[in-house]
């Protein structure tokens, strides 16, 4: 005599329930993108600026490495890190020649630093940019660009949080 049984959740073979479960989402670390992304870590970015990113891309050209982090499926907000491996500039030269016109000098970050808030343009919201000369003669910049619709107050609030992230990068805390 042949007996047939149907596989239902109540009488499914052991292990079948586990096979039906969706796989957990795995997040590839930002550092896996290489380039300047090796300096960034999603949880610590979120800890310092309050924004969670989950995708990263990098590029390298000569002594300049870049990294852009975003949220999957959205182009904004984004955070861009640029690292120039070495420079002959000193603090005075950096502020006189490399600080953008209208940017404010910033203390407490590297040998010399600036910050600026840029207006919204081209379908993006305002941007906050920090640039600094590290004590070991590297040039770094961080730029956070908001999505369309963000205001100047949000950008000014982000500037302080971005300084915290920059200080962590400058001190190798990330």
From TrEMBL:
Q: What is this protein called?
A: Uncharacterized protein
- Species lineage: Bacteria, Bacillati, Actinomycetota, Actinomycetes, Micromonosporales
């Amino acid at each position: 005599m042949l007996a047939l049984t149907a596989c239902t959740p109540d009488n499914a073979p052991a292990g079948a329930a586990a096979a039906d479960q969706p796989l957990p989402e795995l997040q590839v670390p930002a550092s896996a993108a290489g380039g300047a992304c090796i300096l960034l870590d999603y949880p610590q970015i979120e800890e310092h600026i309050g924004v969670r990113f989950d995708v990263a891309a990098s590029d390298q050209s000569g002594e300049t490495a870049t990294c852009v982090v975003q949220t999957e499926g959205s182009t904004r907000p984004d955070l861009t890190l640029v690292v120039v491996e070495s420079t002959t500039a000193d603090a005075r030269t950096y502020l006189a020649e490399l600080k953008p016109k209208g940017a404010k000098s910033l203390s407490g970050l590297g040998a010399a630093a600036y910050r600026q808030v840029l207006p919204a343009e081209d379908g993006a919201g305002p941007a906050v940019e920090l640039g600094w000369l590290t004590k070991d003669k590297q040039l770094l910049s961080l730029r956070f660009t908001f999505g369309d619709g963000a205001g100047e107050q949000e950008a000014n609030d982000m500037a302080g949080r971005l300084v915290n992230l920059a200080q962590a990068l400058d001190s190798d805390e990330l």
